[in-house]
Each structure stands twice: as C-alpha cells, then as structure tokens.
Design brief:
about 180 residues; Nucleoside Triphosphate Pyrophosphohydrolase; 10 strands
Length: about 180
C-alpha cells in the first residue's frame, strides 16, 4: 500500500481559502531551497505524549507559522514554539511539506516567495518550560494539551481536520522509523 493511499486526506490536493492557495502534501528527505520556504509546522511530542493547541474558538491546531524577515525556518520554529506552546525545541526531523501555489496576484507579505512556496513540516521533541507567550497580534492559544496519539487523531477528525489527524499518524510512524535506524 502506498503512503498516499494510507493517508488519503493528507496527500489530497486542496484549495486553502487564505490566499487562496492550491496545496499538496509531499514527502521530503531534505528541505527545499530556503528562498522557497514561507512557513513551518511541527508535530511535537514531549516524552510519550503528543502536543496540540486549542484556539479561543475551540479548534485544535499544530504549532507553526510564517517566516519573518531574516529568519531561517528553524528560527521561525523556535519562535513559534515559544509563542504558541511555551516550549523549547529539542529535536526536529523534517519529513514533508505542503507544496503551495498562491492564486493571489501578490504575496501575503513582501518578503515571502510567490506564487510557489513550501510550508515545511517535521516531527520533533519539545520541552515545555512556560505558558505560551501569546504576543499581541499573534494567534492566541487558550490551551496546550499533551495527549496520546489516538486522542490527538480523534480531536482533529472531530473538527473535520482529517488531514492533520493523518499528519500526526505519519509523524508517529516517522518518529518510530527514525529511532529504529
């Protein structure tokens, strides 16, 4: 069975409303060129539990965000983890990305690649050290939850985010596979 057929919601091409943007998840062994990376996400875990975020509207999400001027995607990831989770990055293994094509006439922000870009994603260990900083103008996180993989998958599926549910499942497989090497 192919990986695409095992995780059909994750690998299905979609149109995201913001932008709008056409996006398709692809497996990657290494990061795309820096000049094509606009965003980064992490499927985080601490010890044996998987971490997820709850916004004020009750929806669940994964940490990550948009690269700021002068940041590498790892710098962005570290900043976003502090803001959204209150965590430090311990390890990060890139395993894929949404390969995106903006349908908008211009970039969301002038320093970001346009119309083609990547939203890279990996799995990583984190250490929660404080509450989320929730900076003004940033996403406001109401809860950081550490749960079993099955709970994370059910929470995402319940809100219609089967793609993210499958992303967590794939991340767990990548984590297990990389540890057995």
């Amino acid at each position: 069975m192919s990986i695409e057929s095992r995780y059909p919601h994750l690998f299905n091409e979609v149109i995201w409303p913001w932008g709008p943007t056409r996006a398709k998840f692809v497996r990657l062994e290494k990061a795309p060129p820096d000049e094509l990376i606009a965003n980064v996400n992490i499927v985080p875990y601490e010890n044996v539990q998987w971490v997820m975020l709850r916004h004020g509207d009750g929806s669940w999400d994964i940490p990550g965000g948009t690269i700021e001027v002068g940041e590498s995607y790892i710098d962005t990831l570290r900043r976003e983890l502090k803001e959204e989770v209150g965590a430090e990055l311990v390890t990060f293994s890139l395993f894929g990305a949404w390969h995106c094509f903006s349908l908008a006439k211009k970039s969301y922000r002038p320093h970001l690649p346009h119309p083609e870009y990547y939203r890279v994603v990996g799995v990583g260990e984190i250490r929660i050290v404080q509450p989320p900083t929730n900076p003004p103008g940033g996403e406001q996180i109401e809860e950081v939850s550490k749960v079993a993989l099955e709970v994370a998958v059910k929470r995402f599926a319940k809100i219609g985010r089967d793609d993210v549910a499958e992303l967590y499942q794939l991340a767990a497989k990548v984590k297990t596979t990389s540890r057995s090497r």
